[in-house]
Design a protein that fits this description.
Radius of gyration: 22 Å
Number of helices: 18
CATH architecture of the largest domain: 3-Layer(aba) Sandwich
CATH superfamily of the largest domain: NadA-like
Distance between the termini: 16 Å
Helix content: 40-55%
Number of domains: 3
Number of strands: 16
Strand content: 5-15%
CATH class of the largest domain: Alpha Beta
Largest sheet: 5 strands, mixed
Length: 444
């Protein structure tokens, strides 16, 4: 299957340090502290030092589990984890491709993921019953998803369902928990990705329904603009960053009040990605004035997307580098670790690649940011997870099941009862299957 934008060919050169910032020892659970202590004591972060240390834990685990072990990572991962996972024959992919890896490889029984929790949960959602999913660090989260927890969204969604009934359909971005994917399924809606959001929203609108788009307000607004919708009929609910919880659906918590809500064609949940919202139209213009082509991810603000020369998913951005003519100059507005890998690919092809926020002008005061929460998955967590699994001592906190909800600050987990989990899986899978039906018609 088509997974990445992979980093294949981007070798770990011996003179280049790993870019992962060391985490403080107290960020590790007790089971992982011995591995962290060993890692922190290493004399440097060069591959020639780290790889032999990792080999001492990863290779025995691979020998123990054989072909039943599957290592996965998201290509936004920092600390060169993507390259480390590839070194051990793992797969690198985006959120959706990660989600289907286990279900499409039934022979893989032990799946270890280095990315954020909602991605691991999506894998578990589609996995077979005899496949176990583990995350190297359950505290690895996503700012967008952290502002769209089920206890925040579901009470508001129920008020909207009570108000609009079957006229409301929920579209849940892939970057949500299983509980919100189940909401989409329960309302007859679908999951979407950044590359097919316009197809899903267009499908929902054909039925004349009002669309509740969760969680990213910017992807939702950009999707509406792409479809030529009247943006005055795209209404955002209260800022999740300000409310930090559920709120009443009233004039005070809706842009334009209830009158605007009733006439809206799309309702946006007020969440966002902290990485993509640092970009401004000024960033775009600065590079364009110097003859660079600017490409951005649609989680950026509308004015940034409209000013850029192109926008699209990470697969779109990676393909643009792959297909650019030698001598091209591309500026990419997305997560920093992705751009670092794209820059390496560009060098191989004679293409210059820069990060949109890396402007050498102190007046901007910005720099290309990597996803810090995703980077909580680091070499000690990878080594420890595999070694503990091999020894049969893996902590249950690292096991991921469909419907799990985790507090990224405390690590506290809420796990559903079996019957609740079964119901959630039914609804969430229906939303995923509906996405496939809409965007991947048979024979296409």
């Amino acid at each position: 299957m088509n997974t990445r934008p992979t980093t294949s060919g981007l070798a770990l050169r011996p003179e280049l340090p790993l870019c992962q910032t060391d985490l403080p020892l107290d960020w590790y659970s007790e089971e992982f502290k011995p591995y962290a202590e060993e890692f922190l004591a290493l004399p440097d972060r060069l591959p020639g030092t780290i790889l032999p240390w990792l080999d001492s834990y990863v290779r025995p685990a691979q020998d123990h589990f054989g072909d039943s072990l599957l290592l996965l990572a998201h290509f936004y991962m920092g600390g060169e984890i993507v390259k480390l996972v590839e070194r051990y024959d793992g797969a690198i992919a985006d959120s959706y491709a990660l989600a289907v890896q286990a279900s499409r490889q039934p022979e893989k029984k032990v799946i270890v993921e280095s990315a954020v929790h909602f991605m691991a949960e999506s894998i578990a959602l589609l996995a077979n019953e005899d496949q176990d999913v583990w995350i190297t660090n359950p505290k690895a989260g996503c700012t967008m998803e952290m502002l769209a927890k089920d206890y925040m969204v579901l009470p508001v969604a129920e008020q909207l369902i009570e108000r609009y009934g079957d006229d409301l359909v929920c579209v849940s971005y892939m970057n949500t928990s299983g509980r919100l994917k189940a909401l989409a399924g329960r309302t007859g809606g679908a999951v979407c990705t950044s590359s097919n959001a316009h197809l899903i929203v267009e499908w929902a609108r054909r039925n004349g329904q009002k669309v509740l788009f969760v969680p990213d307000e910017h992807l939702g607004r950009n999707t509406a603009a792409r479809l030529g919708m009247d943006l005055s009929k795209v209404v955002r609910l209260a800022s999740a960053e300000e409310t930090r919880g559920a709120f009443p659906v009233d004039d005070a918590h809706v842009e334009g009040g209830l009158a605007a809500l009733d006439s809206a064609e799309m309702i946006l949940w007020g969440s966002y990605c902290g990485v993509h919202t640092v970009f401004t139209e000024g960033h775009v213009r600065w590079w364009q004035e110097r003859d660079w082509t600017v490409l951005v991810h649609p989680e950026s603000k509308l004015e940034v997307v409209e000013a850029a020369d192109g926008s699209g998913s990470t697969a779109y951005l990676w393909k643009a580098v792959e297909e650019a003519a030698p001598g091209s100059k591309l500026v990419i507005g997305t997560e920093g670790h992705f751009v670092t890998n794209a820059r390496e690919l560009g060098k191989q092809r004679g293409v210059e690649v820069m990060h949109l926020a890396d402007i050498p002008d102190p007046g901007f005061g910005t720099s290309g940011c990597g996803c810090a929460t995703m980077s909580r998955n680091d070499p000690p967590h990878l080594a420890g997870m595999l070694d503990l699994l091999r020894k049969g001592e893996a902590p249950d906190a690292n096991r991921v099941m469909a419907g799990d909800s985790v507090n990224e600050l405390t690590g506290e987990r809420d796990r559903l009862e079996p019957d609740e989990r079964a119901e959630l899986i039914t609804h969430a899978r229906s939303a995923l299957e509906r996405m496939i039906e809409v965007t991947e018609p048979a024979g296409a």
